[in-house]
# Entry
Amino acid sequence: MQCGEDDCRRRAAVELHVPWRENLVVCPAHARVWAQRDGVVTVPIEGEADRWP
# Structure
């Protein structure tokens, strides 16, 4: 599965639960940025947990 951020070709590893929008699947790099926002919960995608510290 590909990262849900525009213009990113990395493989998704994390599902973000974002209270103010739909859930989003992203690569670890984008997940780190999103995870700093209040209310965002990160959940590793099954089989990808080793890519998300």
In short: The mean pLDDT is 93.
